Amino acid sequence: MITKYRLGQPFNTEAVVEELENHPFSDFPLENTTAENKTTVKFHLDNDDIIFGLGETVRGINKRGWIYESWCSDETTHTEDKRSLYGAHNFIVVRGAKLFGLFVDYPGKVVWDLGYTATDEAVISFDDVNADFYYITGENERDIVKQFRKIIGKSYIPPFWAFGYQQSCWGYTTEQDFINVRDNHRKNNLPLDCIYMDIDYLDHFKDFTVNTDNFPDFKGFVDDMKSHNIHLIPIIDAGVKKEEGYSVYEEGHKKGYFCKNADGTDFDCGVWPGVVGMPDFLNKEAKEWFGRQYKFLTDMGIDGFWNDMNEPALFYSVKGLKKALNSLKEYDADKEIGIWEYFRLKDIFNGLPNSIEDYSSFYHNVDGKMVCHKDVHNLYGTFMTNSAGEYFEKEFGKEKILMFSRASYIGMHRKSGIWFGDNFSWWSHILLNLKMLPSVNMCGFLYCGADLGGFNNHCTRDLLLRWLQLGVFTPLMRNHRALGTKAQEAYSFENTEDFADVLSVRYRLIPYIYSTFRRCSQEDDMMFRPLAFDYPEDKLAIETEDQLMLGEECMIAPIYEQNKNGRYVYLPEDMTFVKLSGEKVTTEKLSKGIHYVQVALNEVPLFIKKGKQIPLCKPALSTAELDTENLEYIKG
Ligand code: MIG
Predict the structure, then answer these.
(1) Where are the domains of the chain?
(2) What is the mean pLDDT of the chain?
(3) Cβ-proximal residues to 540 (8 Å cutoff; 6+ apart), any chain
(4) CATH class belonging to 2-152
(5) Separation of 308 CA from ligand 1 center, angstroms?
(6) Among 192, 462, 523, 585, which one has the highest count of C-beta atoms within 10 angstroms of its own C-beta?
(7) 228 class by beta-carbon count within 10 Å (0-12 exposed, 13-18 middle, 19+ buried)
């Protein structure tokens, strides 16, 4: 059962689509206080209580023992000391004396102190007295999640081809770069459906342009790639370059569609294009206008997008940079400065990006009312992405356009997927990738995945193979890396056959992954679940956070450590251990308990429950060539 409690007059975040009766906050079942401009909710935690949720965050599946902040952030290093990543996903399920779910529908920063300050207490707080709270009780965790998912609406379903393997790299610049990626995959029998176009395809990083020196006939190029069963997926950044003669900027500026300073002038800030205007996606007209701009690319045959920098990420604000530069005048280059002075000087510039001072200083025009960005920060990327999603649905219908975004708030899951942003080529980030899957599923984000192989740093052959062995199960299966990192396309390493073996397994599994995905969208279900959800009485299962349940049939347990030929795995019931490699399938029945399983670098491990079965089709080099009619089954 879901009960909605309304505090004050909350901003309409559009997260919930079902109309529920508003109960007064005075009836809210958890201990709470509201002071002048602060709301606090508390509940007690016993030793064994567990908190699931919070979507895209660092740390474990059980979120207890840390402090998290819902604040969409361009966080470049996903280490466990961090409190925020790109998403703001204010939903938890608590298993304690009572089992309940809680969604805090508030678009500014929400702090989740989950047994961090005091081990036995969870404290949720934010600086406002306007919010909606949804308190959910149910039979079990999964049931609570389903009830929540029902009120936030059905999850986005991308086109079928979006379940193919995808290659990306910040730095592919010319037609030839893209052709090489395509041909090297095809030549080496490596399946591929999409190649991503990062900011380098643009003319001076201007949204809705293409560099015509590098792409003299872009439409022709898109078509040619399609004839090879490759979709090109361009990036769109939130900021619009401030430049005379650039029609998107000029129109946006003229119509007042950019965010404003308190004095009514445009809030100018710096991102990749240099100085930009930030489209005011919370202004209905501006939102529609921005969505329509995608037509420039869909007219050329583009049918997929990724939206970036939409937390929004700000390298600096023009006024902030000015202030910083002015403060330099206090320093004399010929005079010695003290060490603390030096650090202060350094901080002036380190403090420029994504500063709270800037976020507090610009405004949205919401139905004629000026709303400070800070109070609605977590909606920015979502409203950007929904601007496109709404345009696509109107223009093309559902399931036609692939789209995912970096920043997100609950509600965006109806129009788009997410990717997990700038991870590292670290073994520990395979595990982080795994742990995020069930928690983002709880919030409706089904189409999701991490940069396989890792974005930052240099990826090694074994790391990529092991990561792909998890990636074959994630709906978004994309290998992406940062500018200047070591090549990590599957063909860049020796013995590409091993990569072909693993990628073929993905294509063999697509009928299963796709049908599971669709069912989860239709039934408001999770595709990936913690073992704790399925085996609530099993102490070992509850503490197992490096394995996941997948659909109704399987369990996955990837290898995430270097120089390992296998791993320990806990089977909460009898299962069949399956290894898939190319067209080879080996099976072994294992009984409930702990086992050490061996998995070679070209094998994908999977566990099928007794009495269940999963379909496999023949592999192909693209989804277009996949025969999804003739299936064989592996039985558990
Ligand atoms: O400031 O477009 O997360 O995937 O390659 C970095 C360049 C901007 C961040 C994205 C990443 C992308 C990169 N972008």
Answers:
(1) 2-152, 513-635
(2) 98
(3) 570, 572, 594
(4) mainly beta
(5) 7
(6) 192
(7) middle
Which residues lie closer than 8 Å to 479 by C-beta, 6 or more apart?
165, 166, 167, 168, 451, 452, 453, 464, 468, 471, 488, 489, 490
Angstrom distance (rounded) from CA 420 to CA 191: 23
In ligand 1, the atom with minimum distance to the C-alpha of 480 is 4
Name the pLDDT band for 330 (thresholds 50, 70, 90). Answer: confident
Centre of ligand 1 from the C-alpha of residue 247, in Å: 25
DSSP 245: T
Question: Tokens for 255?
Answer: 């119509």
Instruction: Give CA–CA dist 155/157, Å, rounded.
Output: 6
How confident is the model over 485-504, as a mean pLDDT? 98
Q: What is the DSSP string of 399-435?
A: TSSEEEESSEETTGGGT-EEE--S-BS-THHHHHHHH
* Gyration radius (Cα) of the chain, Å: 24
Q: Tell me the best of 168, 172, 235, 310 to mutate to test the pocket of ligand 1, counting ligand atoms within 8 Å of each CB and taking the most.
A: 235
CA–CA distance from 615 to each of 324, 502, 511 (Å)? Answer: 61, 17, 7
User: Exposure string (b/e) for 292-301, b if CB count within 10 Å is 16 or more?
Assistant: bbbeebbebb
Task: Calculate the alpha carbon distances from 271 to 275, 278, 287 in Å.
Answer: 7, 10, 20
Q: Which atom of ligand 1 lies nearest, measured to the CA of 235?
A: 2
User: Amino acid letter at 314?
Assistant: L
- Enumerate residues 6+ apart whose C-beta is below 8 A from 577: 587, 588, 589, 590, 595, 597, 605, 606, 607
**pLDDT for position 249:** 98
In this chain, the answer to whether the domains covering 2-152 and 513-635 adopt an identical fold is yes
Sign of CA dihedral 223, 225, 228, 233: negative
Tokens of 234: 């361009």
Taking only the tens place, the pLDDT of each residue in 373-394 is 999 999 999 999 999 999 999 9
- Residues 206-219: tens digit of each pLDDT: 999 999 999 999 99
* C-alpha distances out from residue 412 to 228, 306, 383, 387, 445, Å: 32, 13, 8, 10, 8
Q: Which residues pair with 275 in a beta bridge?
A: 270
